[in-house]
From TrEMBL:
InterPro entries: ERp29_C, ERp29_C_sf, PDI, Thioredoxin-like_sf, Thioredoxin_domain
Protein name: protein disulfide-isomerase
Enzyme nomenclature, EC number: 5.3.4.1
Catalyzed chemical reaction(s): Catalyzes the rearrangement of -S-S- bonds in proteins
GO terms classed as biological process: protein folding
Species this chain originates from: Candida maltosa (strain Xu316)
Family: Belongs to the protein disulfide isomerase family.
Amino acid sequence: MKFLSLLLYITTTIAYSASNILIGNDQNLQSIIKTPGKFTFVDFYADWCRHCKKLSPTIDQLSELFSDVPEVQIVKINGDKEGKKMGRKYVEIGYPTLLFFYDDGRKVEFDGIRDLTSLSNFIQQLSGIRLEDKPEVVEEDVVIDDEPGNKLVEFTPENFNAKVKSSRFAVASFGASWCKYCKELDPALEQLANDVFARDDILIGHLVIDQYEDHTLDEKYDIQNLPGILFFQNGDLENPLVYKGGKNFKSLLDQINKFTGYNRDYEGNLAANAGVIDEATQLIKEGGDITELYENLDKIPGETIEYYKKLVGAKEYIPSELSRVEDILTNDIDKLNGLTIDSLTKRANILRSLL
């Protein structure tokens, strides 16, 4: 009995860290992932990986963030030691590799900016779980009042500021009920909001100024010609970009893509250059000293730069990895959600740019 108690104590000590993180290994990872009713986020790391060491405190913070959410478990596994077998199974290019698992074994790889907010949002989006301290009023502000499922926002003088601040990007069209050009623009705005950019962090809406006695907004932004269109970023209400292009679907689509970097086509699919960072592509193609290459990549902004880092020194794997990703997008696309399709499409674009 003493031996059994000691064994149970050791097993528990190995399985859990002091920060609510589960410690995975070759023997227990599969059972952890397939725990019924659990969503599992796994950090595959290696002791020699400097990016892994830099990321480790963030993973600790992430586990604390979800410590009161029993449905979500955060796991670390050393792919260079006790997790070698699992590393070979799941790490396709390099460390760190961050994977989200459903309890049936399906997985989605995280390839965005490795900060606490991005990782938390990733888990919340895939699990459908919202942290309690996430302001609920923001979600209500984004919901459209008119038609179920319609994402075109009806701005009012009272809700304008809150709605614009609720999204990373916002497009606001100022019009009037008597303006035929404004009415002609509405179908384009609806298509952009509901079809093209429906999955993105952008809010598109219109304000019919003659429906309200309060003209503070059109006076503040000096709206002279209707429809007048403003682009906002990061909730900055004081410095919008005044749109001066054509008041039609194609012109607006091109300008929104340029403003946001989303690179969507008219159906909402990602364009062939989405995710590609020309400077990063050129650096990896040129090669050179690995340490210097990582340092140069660290200086380049962009949400896909972390994926580029995984491709350093992996030139021989690029064709096979591209083939694998293309196969998923061709044969399994009906099984994927929009977030995963976008992620895989960006990877495929990056891989093609490196051939």
